[in-house]
């Protein structure tokens, strides 16, 4: 065996050992989180076995339930993909809820005012959703790069502006309010989409879900490929890791950072349009509480998925399962909000390992520096 092959073998062994260490830390953190969740259930007088069984029944085991879970996972995944794009660019977008709401509202306006139906109108609804989310995120991008206002603040504040703006539209018959006489104005709901402007639903083994599930999967693969193999993805990640270095290399912070925010908003707006035309939310109507925290939970999906598009696919399904399964917890005597505690513990479980690894690497670097001295 030559010295070169021996050195390569040592490198592979070190990488394998490092990978096993990282995986062990993550598994240990998740195990601790699950134990903590079980202790919380015991403290509330519930049984973790009965709660787990109810969650599984409500999310995948019950008749037609995994189809419902897929329908909820679709917008969660799309919001997560948008969050991943802006995170790779070093930006913090907290306005997913508002961008989703504006996208759904603009899609509703197009659907209810165009006066016709068909696949062409359905495409326009999707396009309007993308445009609405992109424009709403674009406001934050302009403020970030023209007025140097932090996007973490502007995107968050624009959520409340979006809520008020759409709420006003739902009070006005010329905008979003359903004008039909059989609906009281105080209900503040939009007109229902026509049957020919709704997304086709697939029926597999007694489970119904929108065909956009496949579009969401393809978009996840596309985002992963773009971030990994294209010049745009490389420059975006360069900007996120070192803005000064990226600037010296000729990467425009305003161009790529603004693009990341706009694309992030476009994904959220598309999620809102899918929710509207898919039928799993609001029964094909826009309502004041339409986003139902999908924007916030999609942000958590990206966080738990460690900003990896493909990893976010199963994470979105798990979060959707917690959401759909929570409706079956009444029989166990446990409040359905316990699923939010489980979500929070999972998020914390996946935030702890990077902190542990950072402290470890920091100590190694300091020790190496001390040895050189």
Describe this structure in words.
The chain has 373 residues and is mainly α. It has one domain (33-39, 47-356): ABC transporter involved in vitamin B12 uptake, BtuC, CATH 1.10.3470. The protein is built from 13 helices and two strands; from the N terminus they run ααααααββααααααα. The protein has helices spanning 3-43, 48-61, 65-88, 96-113, 119-146, 151-169, 212-229, 231-241, 243-248, 253-278, 294-304, 312-325, 338-372, and strands spanning 201-204, 207-210. The chain has a two-stranded antiparallel ribbon. β1 (201-204) and β2 form a beta hairpin. The protein starts with a helix and ends with a helix. The mean pLDDT is 83.
Termini distance? 36 Å
Unreliably modeled segments: none
CATH architecture descriptor text: Orthogonal Bundle
Chain oligomer state: single chain
The number of E-state strands comes to: 2
Strand residues, percent: under 5%
Write the element-wise H/E pattern from the N-terminal end onward.
HHHHHHEEHHHHHHH
Helical residue percent band: over 70%
CATH topology: ABC transporter involved in vitamin B12 uptake, BtuC
Record the strand order, biggest sheet: 1-2
Question: How many distinct domains?
Answer: 1
Question: What does the overall shape look like?
Answer: globular
What is the averaged pLDDT score?
83
Largest sheet, in brief, is: 2 strands, antiparallel
Summarize the structure.
The protein has 373 residues and is mainly α. The protein has one domain (33-39, 47-356): ABC transporter involved in vitamin B12 uptake, BtuC.
